[in-house]
Specification:
Layout lengths: L2 H7 L5 E2 L2 E2 L19 E4 L2 E4 L1 E7 L29 E7 L26 E5 L6 H11 L3 H9 L6 E10 L2 E10 L6 E2 H10 L4 H22 L7 E2 L5 H17 L2 E4 L2 E3 L3 E4 L2 E4 L3 H6 L5 E3 L9 H10 E4 L5 E10 L10 E9 H7 L3 E8 L4 H13 L4 E8 L5 E10 L3 H11 L6 E5 L6 E8 L2 E8 L8 E4 L1 H11 L3 H14 L13
Parallel strand pairs: 7-12, 12-17, 13-16
Antiparallel strand pairs: 1-2, 3-4, 3-8, 5-6, 7-19, 8-9, 10-11, 14-15, 18-19, 20-22, 20-23, 21-22, 24-25, 25-26
Length: 519
Amino acid sequence: MSAAKTRKAKTQAVKARGTAKTASPGPAPGKAARRGRGAAHSHAGQSHSHSHSHSHEHGHEHEHEHEHENGHSHGHGHGHGHGHGHEHGHSHEHGHEHGHSHGGFVEREGLRRGAGEGKVLFLDAPSGIAGDMTIAALLDLGVPLREVLAPVEALGLRGYHVHVERVERSGIAAARFDVHVEGRQPERTHGSIKAMLRAAAMAPSIKERALLVFERLAQAEATVHRSTIDDVHFHEVGAVDAIVDVVGAAAAIDWIGAEIEVSPLPLGRGFVKARHGILPLPPPATVECLAGLDTYDGGLDFEFVTPTGAAICGALAARSVRWPSLSPIRTGWGAGTAVLPDRPNLLRAVLGERATRRRAQGETHLVIEANLDDATGEIVGACIEAALEAGAVDAWASPVTMKKGRPGLVLAAIAARSAGDAVSRAILRESTTLGVRLTPVARVERARRFETVDTAYGAIPVKVAGGDGLGPAQLKPEFDDCRRAAAAHGVPVRDVVRAALVAAATRTPPRAAPKSFDK
């Protein structure tokens, strides 16, 4: 361990609700086992309520050294409340009660499945991110605990229990999620973890997300060691606690169903002693997992981002953004254990609706478009008529030059939102296109009314736009009515249009039209 990390470790006395947190007596590669008084946890598929009396002295960073037959050796130092190399004196009194007991953690009113569809889930990580912090923040957001634990229990893992509690950081109430490992765990390869996930009885969408995270980790390790994915042996991230973190986070994210965005991530500095020698912070695999995302100097000798947290972000986040344009709906907080000198050790999860989507809700119409390069003029005309009959306010076709220089047309219609589906179906049915584009729009309209005027050719409806302070009134006789009147009297249609315009300009008072037109 570096001198810098040793100095840092001495500052990390961890407290929650005034109670010192302690490490589990069993080895826990990748994460020290922490336990708080009266918190809820689950023993490898069963939930218990424990009462603990602990006497601990800690505040140490940890170092992992793993030796394997194939010669791989990895070491990671974690700062998200991870502490190894403790001297423990435990005095435990266990009263096991089967069934969920949340102790200091009270679940919020649960989010329904798919509550984030069409929305954004923003992970704001000024103190970095780890797998357990991710789960904790999403539990606090409102993901039901049972929906996180059920897929994990489906893996059939043994020798661990899950511990959830409510803590406070800088006056902010947050959730904390810990996996306590009991005894040694077998070494696992990428292939064995992949096989275990595929064989588990859980939703395919959860499996897919978890597989993506482990694929990201495996690719990062393979890049660092200049090996193939099949040769990668997971050490710390293959331990049971990391598997629980990855699958639990995948389940929580799948439950919400939102697109994920993450803030730029702080990265620590310093060094960590590993089996291969001294490694720099952040660990090489962490950096590889974060390819494509924004990072910055976190300013401390501290491991802000764990490999598991990096893989979750790298595999599942769409992009980095300082703060997205959104309207917040709900916020959850997940806590790490370490006490940082310059910031609360918290991850904030914000579920929100994009600002552009909110603006679209005030837009009353849709523009529906399709590009055509293989339709005759007659077909295009029939499409326009079909769109109007389906409820379009207007429809048109514009010439364009398409790929490879082919001449084409953009067939378009504008319709009220309520008629958008019917108009889209009409265009898909009548044209040669395989799809349409929908663009929400708002219309600024002049005040309009219909009047019926008497002419020598009969009553003709006239659309009148005016009385709104936007200039002289615009008069437009309804052409179909003018054409019918012209045919009935054997005169050119322009004569009927002229007569209707003169009558509309001179008549008083107006008489209501016998029918309405949505034009």
